[in-house]
Amino acid sequence: MLCMIVAAMSFSGFQGVYSYRKLARSVSERASELPIAESLVDEMVGLDGKYKLLVKSILRDTPVPTGITNEFLNQLQSVQLAAIAYQNQLNTANQDDDMLGDTSEELAMVNEIRSLLTDVDHQLQGVRSDAAMQRIEMLTPPLNRALSLARQMPRKLQQRMNTFADEARLSYRTWIVLTWIGSIFGAVLLIQLIRLVQSWLVRPFGKLISGSRRVASGDLEYQVTVDTNDEVAELAAAMNNMTRKFKRIRDDLDQQVKERTREVIRSEQLASVGFLAAGVAHEINNPLATIAMCAESLESRVEEVMSNETEQVTEQIAVIRKYLQRIQNEAFRCKGITEQLLDFSRLGNAERQHVPLVGLVTDVVEMVQHLGKYKECELELECSGPVFAIVNPQEFKQVALNLVTNALDSLDDGGRVKVSLTQQENHAQLEVVDDGCGMSERTLEQIFEPFFTDRQDGSGTGLGLSITHRIVDDHGGKIHVHSDGTGKGATFIVTLPSNKQLTSNGKNDEQHPSTRVA
What we know:
- With about 525 residues, the chain is an alpha+beta fold.
- The chain is built from 12 helices and 7 strands.
- A hairpin with a 3-residue loop joins strand 4 and strand 5 (about 425-435).
């Protein structure tokens, strides 16, 4: 469009300039032609005067003076030269594409004049005697014809000038109209070009700039929209993709910050619990041991007395024995809790080895599946081949036991738990899947926190999964937990490094809590 505007304006301007140039050249040539035409007329008039003097001299029957004859011949030659000059001027005008009209008629007249003068000159060749000069009257018709033609020359030029004036008037009026049309067309094109530039460039780039500023200010939800299908639209799409990537990175970083924050809090809690657990366990272990031993001693003595007492005393002793057994059971239960606390505070010091995991998990499964409270549940172990990892065997068995019992505790009668072991490229993976009670979002967020439990009966210490998490973390492994919601079961996935290099690289910082608690 811009090229059309430039072309239209250039054509109009150049056409006007070249037309003016051609007109100026034509006028200049006509200005040069007019004196030559007048000179030809003057020479012909002079030749006619010389001819009349010559004729008068002959009519007096006196010898013709030589001077008059020579003057006539010289004048004839001057007329021929003037005719040649005028002819050359007309030929030059034709070659330059003269704007003042066709000069062919004038050229024909000049050629006729030259032909007449040539005939006159031929008739005069060799004529020098008085008798011959008397025949000069025969030259009167051609000379009169030549004089008449010469006198018509200025009138022909004037007619051409008048015709040219009419043509020039029509031409410049036409070009004025065309110039106005071209100017209006160019103005319309320019206005349309401005509108298109505004629509295709200015407005889309304005949206890009405003969108960039919004994104730079932190509004990563904003998406730039443009109405074009060109490079600007591609740039907007690329910017939107970049914004979405920034948003994903920001969300991922926010999630990592939240996870790291929870981990720091959990680590602080674990450290505090470990410190308290060591002290509390040592403080209460001795009294509990004393209670248990005293209860056992009393029970043995009661049995000795029962052999010698009456039936009434026997009933009382049975009651005493019942309560003594309850004291023993509760004392041993407290002792188990303190042992868990001590284990919790002592993690991370055991020696780790490159050991097969299938046997360890098999031992755990065989031990658990014979427990009375789990007899109505289905427990399945799946392993496709040898699986090795660098672990402490006892700690790994504790991890497997905690996960399996936690899954079994979540089941109703007839529920199913599937335990599988797989060897990956650099890791060993333990997966425990159950179809039990599942867990809520709140449970998923707090599942690995110490002393957290969601069991309705209030059983459990809330330390099983915390200890499991800490063991896995100390081994440089990862624990993932997933549940689709309450009543939809849960999946625990533990990955442990199978070579020393990965183990020495440190712990994996990503944890994905979720499930029930032990």
